[in-house]
Amino acid sequence: MIPYFNTSGPCVPGQHHMLPPERRLVRAMELVEQGRFFTLRAGRQTGKTTSVQWLVEHYNCGDQYAAVWVDLQPAREQPDIDRAMREILLQLDRSLSRDLPDVERPEQAQQDAWLRSPSSAVLEHLRCASDSAAQPLVMLFDEADGLVGETMVSFLTQLRTGYIDRQKVPFPHSVALVGMREVRDYVIAAEERRAVSWLGTTSPFNITAEAQTLAPFAAEEVAELLAQHTAATGQRFEAEAALLIHELSQGHPWLVNALADQVVRDVRDHSVALTAAHVDAARETIILERRTHIDSLVAKLREERVRRIVGPMLLGERTGPDVLNDDFSYLMGLGLIALRAGRYEVANPIYREVILRTLTFDQQAQLTQEPAWYIGADGRLDMGRLLRGFQTFWRKDGHLAAEGFHYREAGPHLMLMAFLQRIVNSGGRVEREYGLGRGRLDLIIEWRGARHVVEVKLRRDTETEEEALEQLATYLDGLGLSEGYLVLFDLRKGSSWEERIFEREVEVAGKRVWVLGC
Predict the structure, then answer these.
(1) Burial state string for 378-398 with b = 16 or more CB within 10 A and e = fewer than 16
(2) Disulfide check for 226: which of 75, 163, 237, 466 has CB 3.0–4.6 Å away?
């Protein structure tokens, strides 16, 4: 069997192309050695389950520790603590039977007795298992952040009780809670936070020192993974293709594998080298198909905590005073944003594109604009005509339709992008750059080898056209282009359509710029 790039479930040695999991687990293994309780968090499909399964096999092949992986997903979001604790104990039994068959498990009658007091049932079960195990027990609770409400509070409290008493009463040597979030994001309701007021203080899950994550793949590791395909089939990824896969994915394991898998499926002739153009086509396929991983990302866009950060990102503005550090931590835990060079930004170019296409798709699908209206006889895209067409649309219908976006404050930006995407779909693409504190949205429209830059800015009383022109001129200079477009959405109170809708040509720092008001 020829190994392949895996995009569903844990990786299996020999069946999938994969990198050694232990590389990403150095600190986690140090914490196990120290007998610590900690969280291991990372975004969706970044290798968490593959990693913990490797840890179980690694420890159980040795004679120092006995390890168990417990999947808590069957108990997730159970509002009834009695049913949830019964499910957790069932999963504990199954996991012990699978990973440590020699460890004695309590009789059902004993477990039923424990369940009469669900606030201590997990504690008693873990004490029993620890007492029976021949080596110190390492417990890895996967999908731990899926527990909610009273169940989550009780589960964490029982672990903390066992941690405090373990010098006198048997209890696991080390416990890891594995999921997408840190402990402080596990419970949200104020009354639940009061119930676990020890979080972040004397908690065994010290979220400042003990929260570990799985690092993304470095560019060299992406090349190493792709080389496994070459070794197995003889088909070579060109260096530029490997670099583009890393750039588009920023090392996210699922995206790396998805891009590589799509490329090799598109080019089945192993004598054909795989190029950056093949990767670019694979990217578009993944975005358009909105596979399960992408759909899970899209679902998060509806959450208020996500909207409070992504909304200002689209505008290039700072977040409001209602956004807490926990909100940023939550989005980072989901893998949606990253902190690079001291600045928050969308985690990778594919997510950046998916967010905007998702938010604009419904409006885009309702537009009656036809690409042929804006393409010249020579096949070139007439950007001036295209943006004037948007001005007409904005004044007539667009400004009203923009109020229907879930991200209402970003409605003007989203409507312009829906309009442009509708036209460019027929032969080009839109590249978007946005982020907190940029003060603008930059668009690059690529059409049959030509690049057109559009900067989008909201015009308020405190912002000037001159500032926007200077920013655009600097951006054009960095791209080596001599001309561009500035679209100003006028948000000043009392301004008339006659004031808002205009077009003029100016020269700034040697650059030719068309300014269009909306």
Answers:
(1) eeebebeebbbbbbebbeeeb
(2) 237
192 with 152: CB under 8 angstroms? yes
Q: Which residues contact 216 (CB under 8 A, 6 or more apart)?
A: 46, 249, 250, 251, 252, 253
Task: For residue 1, name the pLDDT band (cuts at 50, 70, 90).
Answer: confident
Give the N- to C-terminal CA distance of the chain in Å, as an integer. Answer: 59
β-bridge partners, 513: 484, 506
CATH 3.40.630 assigned to domain 219-289? The reply is no
Say whether 380 sits in a helix, a strand or coil.
Answer: coil
Encoded amino acid at 73, one letter: Q
Tens digit of each residue's pLDDT (9 = 90 or more) over 270-292: 999 999 999 999 999 998 887 77
The reported pTM is 0.86
Dihedral of the alpha carbons of 424, 426, 428, 429, in degrees to the nearest 10: 50
* Whether 465 contacts 488, CB under 8 Å: yes
Distance of alpha carbon 390 from alpha carbon 355, whole angstroms: 22
Record: fold of 21-213? Rossmann fold (3.40.50)
Contact yes or no for 18/257 (Cβ under 8 A): no
Burial of 171 (0-12, 13-18, 19+ CB in 10 A): buried
C-alpha separations of 335 from 46, 180, 431 in Å: 9, 8, 21
User: Can you give the residue ranges of every domain in the chain?
Assistant: 21-213, 219-289, 348-517
